[in-house]
Design goal:
Length: about 70
């Protein structure tokens, strides 16, 4: 599942509007709408603000293999 879909589902679960999340996250409403549709690529800082407003957090996991392993 794409992060944009997770964000949209969580917002709806909380009963918040797109405008509510945009205001609290300090992003424009048009940017937030584009993000929910998967058309915007926010910076990590912006994504963290949006996730925080929705009670979510960004996590990075180590993959089992990587390109540089021998």
């Amino acid at each position: 599942m794409e992060y944009s879909e997770i964000i949209r589902q969580r917002r709806k679960q909380l009963g918040a509007t797109q405008e509510d999340v945009a205001d609290v996250s300090d992003v424009s409403l048009s940017f937030y709408k584009m993000l929910e549709k998967g058309y915007a690529n926010p910076s990590v800082t912006t994504l963290e603000r949006i996730l925080d407003s929705l009670g979510l957090e960004l996590q990075i996991y180590e993959k089992r293999t990587n390109t540089f392993e021998q």
